[in-house]
Design goal:
This protein has 305 residues and is of the alpha/beta class. The protein has helices spanning 11-29, 54-65, 86-94, 110-117, 133-147, 165-176, 205-208, 233-240, 244-247, 270-273, 280-301; strands at residues 43-48, 69-74, 100-105, 121-127, 154-158, 180-184, 200-202, 214-217, 255-257. The chain contains eleven helices and nine strands. Strands 7-6-5-8-9 form a five-stranded parallel β-sheet, with helices on one face. Strands 2-1-3-4 form a four-stranded parallel β-sheet, with helices on both faces.
Length: 305
């Protein structure tokens, strides 16, 4: 595997391979010195045109635990503000002798375009409304850790599906592993067409919660919304927020997930976010091991492919 641009690049076998590797890197991360020499001599660059905390730091930690050298591209301190094009920026960075580019951008398709320009490996760290494949992989790993295999499990994805690259990648990954997915949102927060999406659709969160093994709450992405899609955040929470009352509708073993950052009091009540069934911080911890697995596959295992 040279690049990871979308979940479909992997297929179910590829996803399973990443998850198997992740388990070994979880063990590495638990060591007193969580480091292996696997990518010594390789250089990984984070090329983030969007703000990020979890994904950027997670990739950086993953690369360092694999003993790779890391560089961070800071848009605010770069020649982008002097008018340098994306292509010139990317080719300049590649000329410094890098092996992998971790790309996040507000426009869908940018990581795929970068992959056409460079010889280095490219990993999509989120592109517009399109995909966020490593988030989906860490969500799969976390669900397997909590529930066992995903085959036959039922997962609800709740909230701003329309603007969510996480939702698109999660749906592709979960269904590839045999899970049933139901998306729950007001009509205004769903894509104009769900044709071809392997999901059920519901507008009744209370009716869905007792029947699922996991619920993935999506952040209300107001920065991507160009119109008022809900009457108010308070009304959204009243119908689609995971309040304490709604959390009590979940089965005993059902888990609560969120890709972060959480809007406490909007999509999830503060006290629900801190319940034992909430595995949000576990998702973050697993994210480092998943990204170690992805970097291993594109740089070590994928060498020469």
């Amino acid at each position: 595997m040279r690049h990871l641009l979308a979940v479909d690049d992997l297929g179910s076998d590829g996803i399973e391979e990443v998850l198997r590797l992740t388990a070994s890197f979880v063990e590495v991360s638990a060591r007193a010195i969580p480091k292996v020499p696997t990518l010594r001599g390789r250089t990984v660059v984070s090329l983030f045109y969007e703000e990020s905390t979890r994904t950027r730091l997670s990739f950086e930690a993953a690369a360092k635990r694999l003993s790779a050298d890391t560089m961070n591209f800071n848009v605010g301190a770069s020649s982008v503000h002097k008018g340098e094009s994306l292509r010139d920026t990317v080719l300049t960075i590649e000329a410094m002798g890098v092996d992998a580019l971790i790309v996040r951008h507000a426009s869908a398709g940018v990581p795929a375009q970068v992959a056409r320009w460079v010889q280095a490996s490219v990993v999509n760290a989120g592109d517009g409304w399109h995909e966020h494949p490593t988030q989906a992989l860490l969500d799969c790993y976390t669900l397997q850790e909590q529930l066992g295999r995903l085959d036959g499990r039922r997962v609800a994805i709740v909230g701003d599906v329309k603007h969510s690259r996480v939702a698109r990648s999660d749906i592709a990954a979960f269904t590839s592993l045999g899970a049933d997915v139901v998306v729950v949102a007001p009509p205004t927060l769903l894509p104009p067409s769900l044709a071809g999406w392997p999901v059920e659709v519901s507008h009744d969160l209370d009716g869905v919660l007792p029947k699922v093994d996991a619920v993935v709450l999506l952040r209300m992405q107001q920065e991507r919304q160009t119109e008022a899609l809900v009457p108010s955040l308070r009304e959204y929470t009243a119908s689609y927020g995971l309040t304490r009352r709604r959390a009590a509708l979940l089965g005993e073993r059902a888990v609560v997930m969120h890709p972060g950052p959480m809007n406490r009091g909007v999509e999830i009540a503060a006290e629900v976010a801190d319940l034992p069934r909430s595995v949000v911080t576990r998702q973050v911890a697993n994210g480092v091991a998943v990204r170690m697995a992805v970097l291993f596959l594109v740089l070590a295992a994928g060498a020469g492919s």
